[in-house]
Design brief:
The complex is a heterodimer of chains A (168) and B (283).
Chain A (H helix, E strand, L loop, with lengths): L1 H22 L9 H10 L4 H17 L7 H19 L5 H26 L10 H23 L4 H10 L1
Helix pairs in contact in A: 1-2, 1-3, 2-3, 2-4, 2-5, 2-6, 3-4, 4-5, 5-6
Chain B lengths: L1 H6 L1 H25 L5 H10 L1 H64 L6 E10 L6 E4 L12 E4 L2 E9 L4 E5 L7 E5 L5 E6 L5 E4 L12 E4 L11 E9 L7 E6 L8 E5 L6 H4 L4
Antiparallel strand pairs in B: 1-2, 1-12, 2-5, 3-4, 3-12, 4-5, 6-7, 6-9, 7-8, 8-11, 9-10, 10-11
């Protein structure tokens, strides 16, 4: 069931990606739906699931963007692992926690990409671009909104889902 | 195997990162040599390609609908603006035509009034009743403007009537077509005199014209200047019927010179006033 939700989330993220690319070019420089998806999934604390989610979401983002294939897969895997690791050891519940996790995830994502691009290409990108603050804020706010809506309509938080799964 | 991997996620994490790094290196190398997509990348794109295609198709359709809607709104707004502009221009056109007509009429009236030696006042008809039992008009000039009872009211096309009542700023006119009115007239061609008064259907009945007199259809009727009210020579109408009567007089009917339906400005002739040069005369 959780994988089905993830798949639906992935299709929605890709839809948003396509929409933004088609009608608002460069909008993805200020907003990342894939980070929201992976962090939401990783908030459950399942390390294995978070890694798989990061790889799959990242590969799809890479496939439909001009980045080096595997770049976002790498960064999102790192994010998923880190968030899941923290979530499995700390109690992270509620919209604010999710927003903070998202903000941290966006920053980590940018750092990882910067490092990888520096290693792999002859023309490294800037570490902190002007749009990064905007991207952090927008992604966090939009993610918090989605989190709130999901908690409202699905009546289930990711942490609780994993807790129940662990009990089973 | 899966259980083992799930129990050691950190190991899986490291392996995945290593694989991804290799994938990136391969991808980057193929980019440099010109091939920008690896087989794996193509596979992922192919698998998920329906999503962006559908999004693009739906988005384009939505955009088309939106643009159509925006265009329609713009056209509607443009249409409303043009209609408003048309209304304003039509209104302006009407006002200009009216001003032009007013100007021509005023010129005509003023030039007409210059032929009279007596003092005159230009007045506007503010009320007009030509369909009732008593045919009358109200002018916007009264005793304050020098208008007095029995002053004659004329129009460039002919005789209108006489003043029968005045207030300070208004005056009432008995129209020549009123059945109670009477004016001494003459046939311009034969100089035969008679009395004009109102008849049915807005026409004039010319009474007291002998059967033996020479009056025929089309003759012009002018004021005779013998009744002590109307000055001589003002056009009154044109004969439309002239038949011998059963008694001594002919039955003569005339069409008034003035179109009372379209009466707007008139000239009041102050026939009873003593001319200023005579008032100021010192022997």
């Amino acid at each position: 069931m959780r994988w089905l939700r993830f798949l639906i989330g992935l299709v929605i993220a890709l839809t948003i990606h396509s929409l933004l690319d088609s009608f608002f070019p460069n909008a993805l420089a200020f907003f990342s739906p894939y980070v929201i998806l992976v962090v939401y999934y990783a908030m459950g604390g399942n390390l294995f699931g978070a890694i798989v989610a990061g790889v799959v979401a990242g590969l799809i983002e890479d496939a439909f963007s001009g980045a080096i294939f595997g770049l976002h897969a790498f960064s999102l895997t790192v994010i998923g692992y880190l968030v899941a690791y923290v979530a499995s050891r700390l109690v992270m519940r509620g919209t604010l926690s999710f927003g903070l996790a998202l903000a941290g995830a966006v920053i980590v994502n940018e750092i990882v990409i910067y490092v990888l691009v520096t290693i792999l290409t002859a023309h490294p990108v800037q570490l902190f671009e002007e749009g990064m603050i905007v991207k952090t804020i927008l992604t966090s706010l939009f993610g918090m909104l989605i989190y709130q809506l999901l908690a409202l309509f699905l009546r289930e938080e990711p942490v609780e889902a994993v807790r129940r799964a662990a009990v089973r | 195997m899966q259980v083992a991997v799930e129990r050691r996620p950190t190991l899986l994490f490291v392996i995945v990162l290593a694989v991804l790094f290799l994938l990136m290196s391969t991808s980057q190398r193929t980019r440099v040599v010109g091939e920008t997509r690896t087989l794996f990348e193509r596979t992922v794109m192919t698998l998920f390609s329906p999503v962006p295609k559908t999004v693009n198709s739906v988005g384009e359709s939505a955009l088309d609908i939106y643009h159509g809607y925006v265009d329609m709104r713009r056209e509607v707004a443009e249409n409303v603006r043009l209609r408003r502009q048309l209304a304003e221009l039509t209104n302006e056109n009407i006002m200009l035509r009216r001003s032009s007509g007013d100007l021509a009429r005023m010129r005509s009236i003023l030039s007409y009034s210059e032929q009279f030696t007596m003092p005159t006042t230009l007045a506007e008809v503010i009320m007009l009743d030509t369909s009732g039992r008593f045919k009358s008009a109200i002018l916007d000039r009264g005793s304050d403007h020098g208008v007095e009872v029995n002053d004659v009211v004329v129009h460039p096309s002919g005789l209108v009537g006489r003043v029968i009542l005045t207030t300070k700023d208004l005056s009432k006119i008995q129209l020549i077509v009123d059945k109670g009115s009477a004016a001494g007239v003459l046939v311009e061609r034969s100089r035969r005199q008679g009395v004009a008064s109102g008849a049915d259907n807005g026409l004039l009945r010319i009474g007291y014209v002998p059967n033996l007199s020479d009056v025929s259809v089309g003759d012009s009727i002018l004021t005779a200047g013998i009744d002590g009210v109307y000055p001589k020579g003002i056009p009154v109408g044109r004969v439309v019927r002239a038949e011998e009567g059963s008694d001594l007089f002919k039955q003569v009917v005339a069409q008034p010179s003035v179109d009372f339906g379209g009466l707007e400005e008139v000239i009041v002739l102050h026939t009873r006033k003593i001319p200023p040069e005579i008032v100021g005369y010192e022997p």
